[in-house]
Amino acid sequence: MTNRTRLVILGVVAVVGSVSLLGRSQNWLAAQQRDYRARLEAATTHGEWVKYVGDGGDTVRAYLAYPERPDVAPAMIVIHEIFGLSDWIRTVVDDFAARGYVTIAPDLLTRRGGTTGADAARRIIADLPRDSLTVDLDATLAYVGSLKAVDPEAVGVIGFCWGGRRAFDYATNNQTIQAAVVCYGSAPSPESMGRIAAPILGVYAENDARINREIPAVEQAMAEAAKDYRYRIYPGTGHGFLRRGTPADEVERAWEDIYRFLDAQLAR
């Protein structure tokens, strides 16, 4: 066998292997999406699509879900990942509603035509101006706080990955938020942390050095600013573990911690 033949064979094997891995990945994603859609169809909460206009005159599209309860409820704003307002984020909204929260997830890509898929969302999100995100989140807070079913003085925010950073940022920009949960998201500048009024819960993955290397500095800056910051690193987990659902015991533990924190802060 010549070197040229050997290289050709190796190249074919590499291509076949890549195609096989890509196929398995696509199949896994498709199966995951089917599971999320099944959960959405089985949800007992009242979920619906809504639109509202912010101060800048721009319309925001969002997914909103109501709990079944006789009294006014606390509310949660869910900030999506870099993949946009996915089916998984909608299941998070429904899960919060099932626990007694009026919950809303704005599609922060609405200005660019809205979420159409994960790949497109990643491209669009890089060009979103930070100021517009704050404006759209303010519009979301105003909208959900105006609902008759909501206690406007008991509204929290949670975000995941890209959305985790946005949740942390939003706590520095809006002092009426009563609680914020940052799921494996990076932190704002230490200088801005003095503006935070809400208690912050950090949810981090063990195998996520890119995010976790910031934690000591964040902890120090929040302590120096006399802010309420607590966090937990979940063993055996990787970035995005709440969406991926693995390992199941740590995912369950993380959600228990999140609900316990929010229930205490928002007096559910």
Could you walk me through the main structural features you see in this protein, from its secondary elements to its overall organization?
The protein has helices at 3-42, 87-98, 118-125, 130-146, 162-173, 209-212, 215-224, 241-244, 248-266; strands at 46-53, 59-66, 73-79, 102-106, 150-160, 179-183, 200-207, 229-238. Helix content is 47%, strand content 23%. The protein is built from nine helices and eight strands. Residues 3-22 have low confidence and may be disordered. The chain has an eight-stranded mixed β-sheet, with helices on both faces. The longest helix is centred in the first third of the chain and has 40 residues, at 3-42. It is α/β, with parallel strands linked by helices and 268 residues long. The radius of gyration is 20 Å and the shape is globular.
Rg, please?
Answer: 20 Å
Q: What is the overall shape?
A: globular
Number of helices: 9
Biggest β-sheet, characterized?
Answer: 8 strands, mixed
Instruction: Return the string of H and E elements.
Output: HEEEHEHHEHEEHHEHH
Poorly predicted residue ranges? 3-22
Structural class of the helix and strand makeup?
A: alpha/beta
The average pLDDT score comes to 87
Terminal CA distance reads 73 Å
Measured by DSSP, the beta-strand proportion falls in: 15-25%
Number of strands: 8
For the biggest β-sheet, the strand order reads 1-2-4-3-5-6-7-8
Helicity level: 40-55%
Sum this structure up briefly:
This protein has 268 residues and is an alpha/beta fold. Helix content is 47%, strand content 23%. The chain has an eight-stranded mixed sheet, with helices on both faces.
